[in-house]
Write a structure and sequence with these properties.
Order of helices and strands: EEHHEEEHEHHHHEHEEHEEEEHHEEE
Number of strands: 16
Number of domains: 3
Number of helices: 11
Strand content: 15-25%
Shape: globular
Largest sheet: 5 strands, mixed, barrel
Distance between the termini: 10 Å
Strand order of the largest sheet: 11-12-13-15-14
Helix content: 25-40%
Structural class: alpha+beta
């Protein structure tokens, strides 16, 4: 995106070209960057500074409408859409879902993009297209079979030791009960592409002890509110930017929330390939954590649960 509309002053929206925006003072950039929207579809937008290796500054959005002229399909976006379809099907086929926080991405982003580009080349040939489609269907079918058979046995046994409500669920875990198991990557991708997960009544287990209705568990940053007794939730959305000291993540979805990373900054950057501040800008993120007010009650804090890196996933933006 070469242009974005700034709604910092609702009564006086201003359209900035990326060239004009990058010439603003650092103070103004920090002030306006969380008020940017796409000029075509009004989807929440972000600003990325120029990189050290010569990549130009740009605007981008993870919230484009599918028919937006600024929306540019890519291998990663296609993967997100596939994950949204798979999760929506999971909601239909499953009675419950367990979040596997230990599950790692199936392959690195670089390998993914390279693989998808190769598929696109093969896509010029009809036979290759059919082969790719069959592989996708086979993978989905294989996963469904695995979730409804082998996982059923092991997860039913795990659920048998739960507290009252979970124990009741375990007793109902008969061979006909279908329990899915998914990692954070697919859940985040599906939420970013508009899956129905955040509105679903599906029971979701965050460990062997606690379960939640999906609609009460998955919370966009814009809707985050401090919970009673610090009860955790799965918070998700996009990152606007990281502060200069790299101690806080600032969600693009709201100006009222901050995510402290001072105790995990370096391992977090290494884990998700966030080599410079620019890499955080426009990144999608999901984390299991608790929301509470700061001491002055001027800002909501979302703290990663036990600072456990297995309970957070970040997907960098593909924009230039």
């Amino acid at each position: 995106m070469l242009d974005a509309i700034c709604l910092f002053d609702d009564s006086n929206p201003v359209t900035y070209s990326v060239f004009k925006f990058q010439k603003l003072s650092d103070l103004d950039i920090e002030k306006y960057r969380q008020a940017l929207v796409c000029p075509a579809c009004a989807g929440k937008a972000y600003y990325r500074k120029a990189s050290k290796d010569g990549k130009a500054a740009c605007f981008g959005s993870r919230y484009h409408n599918a028919d937006c002229r600024e929306f540019k399909p890519s291998a990663a976006k296609e993967r997100e859409e596939l994950h949204a379809i798979e999760v929506n099907q999971l909601l239909v086929d499953s009675d419950a879902m367990i979040i596997d926080f230990s599950r790692q991405p199936s392959q690195s982003k670089a390998r993914l993009i390279k693989s998808e580009l190769a598929k696109n080349e093969l896509g010029k040939h009809e036979s290759a297209n059919e082969d790719i489609s069959q592989k996708a269907k086979s993978a989905s079918a294989s996963q469904s079979v695995s979730q409804s058979t082998s996982q059923l046995t092991s997860e039913s046994a795990a659920l048998s030791g739960h507290e009252a409500n979970a124990r009741s669920d375990a007793q109902q875990a008969t061979p006909s009960k279908r329990i899915a198991k998914e990692g954070l990557e697919k859940l985040l991708n599906s939420l970013m592409r508009g899956s129905e997960l955040a509105e679903s009544d599906l029971w979701v287990y965050t460990d062997d002890k606690y379960r939640w209705r999906a609609k009460n568990l998955f919370v966009n940053f814009a809707d985050a509110e401090p919970t009673e007794n610090g009860s955790p939730r799965m918070y998700w959305g996009t990152v606007s930017h990281i502060d200069k000291e790299q101690l806080w993540l600032n969600p693009a979805d709201t100006k009222e929330v901050g995510i402290p990373i001072d105790k995990i900054a370096e391992p977090l950057k290494q884990r998700f390939g966030l080599n410079e501040r620019r890499d955080f800008e426009g990144a999608a993120i999901i984390l299991f954590g608790k929301c509470f007010w700061n001491k002055a009650k001027t800002r909501k804090i979302i703290q990663l649960w036990n600072n456990d890196l297995n309970r957070v996933f970040i997907s960098k933006s593909e924009e230039n």
